[in-house]
Design brief:
Blueprint (H helix, E strand, L loop, with lengths): L4 H5 L7 E6 L5 E7 L2 H8 L8 H9 L2 E6 L3 H15 L15 E4 L8 E4 L8 E3 L5 H14 L12 H4 L10 H11 L5 H4 L13 H15 L3 H17 L3 H19 L2 E2 L7 E8 L3 E10 L2 E11 L6 H15 L6 E4 L7 H12 L4 E3 L4 H42 L7 E10 L2 E11 L2 E2 L5 E4 L8 H24 L16 E5 L2 H13 L6 E5 L6 E3 L13 H34 L7 H10 L3 H6 L2 H5 L6 H12 L9
Parallel strand pairs: 8-11, 11-12, 13-17, 17-18
Antiparallel strand pairs: 1-2, 1-3, 4-5, 4-6, 7-10, 8-9, 9-10, 13-14, 14-15, 14-16, 18-19
Helix pairs in contact: 4-13, 10-11, 14-17, 15-16
């Protein structure tokens, strides 16, 4: 027998827990927590009670509810955050696309940890820093770390010295001798070692403890604890100088100077020396924006903004409170103090207890009413408002693009407005270095992360039609392969690169290119995907089944969209073509150097992007390339600098 909601109300316990409402389709539409499930859930069903528009709308859709009892309110809060993240209920405030935010990952579970970018949080013993809302900012941070700290960037599986040196260890040899023996037996270090960007653990040039000390310094930097990091480095520099290790002391001196230079760019926002996060929210008509500023040691070291859906009848205090639960649910580092613009008073104690439990130390959660802290919160709130306005402008732009796509579909006789457009272009020079490009327009914008390029393999001579067909065939065959793997559960939609299909394929050219593209799509079972061609000079649009091209007015937004997509595909193809042509020229020059065979040519081309880069490289840098040795490096250096055997070498 299934109990009705009214019958369930009588069974509710007066204990902490989580409750959730379901609609007539069985979907969870709201998740909440309560100190007393009995009192909280019953309040939703009280006739004549003063309810917010959100609650009235919720109860109009809710047909049933369920509940889970927990031991205390902190456990209820954690469970609530998990359920919201999993089900994304309609009436809850939740982080949009939070699963796709990038993090910096320090692989502490490895003997010689790496620092890399990831979008997956896993319980694998690693430390995660983030989330970051801008991928560019993550890459900039990682690039900065690589200039400041000599950690490895390769993915090799490296055993510790104690494990790897067991075969080389002599009975009477010292630890230093054993390490040298292991280094001699190991692989040659890469270029990063020679330019002091890596300690070369793969070659046995550093022991595990020394390397992990560098990784601890990386973590200190990412936590914003630069002052502690500087003290640590200065102590190491002094010890190195005392031991007469002047080269090591000089390297540490340069590292300290670089970190100080970074710190000079950071704005002092607090007279205190503690760590703070400052959180504020701005709300618009259908969107809200939460801003988080990170203050470490009294200095502003970074900020992030997060967009959330706006729910009618939800106050700023409720939005901030919901954001705090979800953001710190997945955050790795929690500061000593969190300043917020608003907060639901009844939630303060439980959130503070939860954060302290998660941090393993005291956490202060505070809504400042006056003074410097109030000014900092106001500054963050202003930034949240500016970010919200930008997002609203972007949304309005997306709506306008939607109208343009509808207009395009009507003028070109398409069945419906395409949500995703893909454009292909071919580039070659008299049949040499043939390439094709694919650019993507989706959700109202160009998507550079989804661009693809193809090096044409099967076409001999200048044949643009055949080149276009090869690129199309490879793209859509990959789509079929990925869709099959996704159905079998062997590939996730997050990992797939080709499974998404376009509503419209645009090719650069005329009727010939249109026919070539149509033939491939029909052959692979994609007859439902529309194809059109856009010629460059006349800007004429060739459509399937029509002998005469269509010409849109010069001021037509639909034409401008197609031109933008076509020109971007041409730019992307031409860039790749020039890169391959440059590599070909580099390859032909390297063939003239005695002692540089195919393997070494490939290694040099992988390491150096151009002839100029090789010309500027020193003998040591050339010798550090995989497969090279000192005599070969000197031969390359002499070739580019015109030196004879008797002349002085660098």
């Amino acid at each position: 027998m299934v109990l009705t909601p009214q019958e369930k109300l009588g069974c509710l316990p007066a204990r902490p827990g989580v409750y959730y409402f379901k609609d007539d389709a069985g979907r969870i539409i709201y998740v909440g927590k309560a100190v007393s499930l009995k009192n909280r859930v019953r309040s939703y069903y009280q006739a004549g009670a003063q309810q917010t528009p959100k609650i009235r709308s919720l109860m109009a859709r809710a047909v049933d509810f369920e509940y889970i009892v927990t031991d205390n309110e902190v456990e209820a809060l954690i469970l609530e955050a998990n359920l919201i993240k999993e089900h994304r209920p309609r009436y809850n405030v939740f982080l949009k696309d939070d699963k796709s935010y990038p993090y910096l990952k320090v692989t502490l579970a490895e003997d010689f940890p790496r620092v890399c970018i990831t979008r997956r949080l896993m319980q694998d013993g690693s430390r995660y820093f983030g989330p970051y809302t801008q991928v560019g900012a993550v890459h900039e941070t990682l690039s900065l770390l690589r200039t400041l700290f000599p950690f490895r960037t390769c993915k090799k599986k490296i055993a510790s010295f104690e494990e790897g040196a067991s075969e080389q260890r002599s009975k009477e040899g010292s630890g230093q001798e054993n390490r040298k023996a292991w280094a001699a037996a190991g692989p040659r270090p890469c270029l990063n070692y020679h330019i002091r960007r890596c300690l070369a653990p793969c070659s046995g040039f550093v022991d595990q403890e020394t390397y992990r000390a560098t990784i601890r310094e990386v973590c200190l930097f990412l936590e914003g604890r630069q002052e502690a990091l500087l003290k640590h480095l200065q102590l190491r520099m002094q010890r190195a100088a005392e031991k007469l290790e002047f080269e090591k002391a000089a390297a540490l001196r340069d590292q300290i100077a670089a970190i100080k230079k970074v710190m000079e760019k950071q704005k002092v926002v607090s007279a205190g020396r503690g760590d703070q996060d400052v959180v504020a929210v701005a709300q618009g008509e259908d969107l809200a924006c939460a801003a988080v500023f990170y203050v470490r040691g009294g200095k502003l070291i970074g900020r992030e903004t997060f967009h959330l859906p706006r729910i009618e009848g939800v106050s700023e205090a409720e939005v901030v409170t919901a954001f705090l639960k979800q953001y710190y649910h997945q955050a790795d580092f929690i500061p000593e103090e969190i300043l917020v613009s608003h907060l639901v008073p009844e939630e303060k104690e439980v959130i503070t207890s939860w954060l302290a439990q998660k941090k393993g130390g005291q956490v202060r959660l505070h809504v400042p009413a006056r003074g410097e802290k109030k000014k900092i919160v106001a500054m963050v709130a202003e930034n949240a408002l500016l970010s919200l306005r930008e997002a609203e402008l972007e949304r309005r732009g997306e709506k306008e693009i939607g109208k343009v796509l509808v207009d395009l579909a009507q003028k070109l006789g398409l069945e419906k407005a395409p949500e995703r457009l893909e454009c292909f272009d071919v580039s070659n020079l008299q049949g040499a270095e043939k390439v094709a490009s694919l650019v993507v327009f989706e959700k109202g914008r160009l998507c550079p992360e989804q661009y693809r390029r193809f090096k044409i393999r099967s076409v001999e001579g200048p044949n643009d039609y055949a080149c276009l067909q090869e690129a199309l065939r490879r793209r859509f065959l990959r789509a079929q392969e990925e869709q099959k793997l996704i159905r079998l559960g062997r590939l996730s939609t997050r990992e797939g690169r080709f499974f998404r299909l376009p509503g419209l394929v645009l090719v650069d050219g005329g009727k010939g290119q249109l026919s070539a593209a149509r033939e491939v799509l029909d052959e692979l079972g994609y007859a439902h995907i529309a194809v059109l061609a856009l010629a460059k000079r006349e800007e004429s649009i060739f459509l399937e089944g029509q002998d005469e091209p269509v010409r849109l007015p010069g001021d037509s937004p639909a034409l401008h969209l197609l031109q933008k997509l076509r020109d971007e595909a041409h730019r992307f193809a031409l860039t790749y073509h020039r890169k391959l042509r440059q590599k070909r020229n580099l390859h032909s020059v390297l063939e003239e150097i005695t002692g540089i065979g195919p393997a070494r040519r490939r290694a040099l081309m992988r390491t150096f992007s151009s002839l100029e880069a090789i010309r500027q490289a020193s003998v040591d840098e050339l010798a550090g390339v995989e497969g090279m040795n000192r005599p070969a490096a000197e031969a390359v250096y002499r070739f580019f600098h015109g030196l004879t055997e008797g002349k002085e070498r660098r």
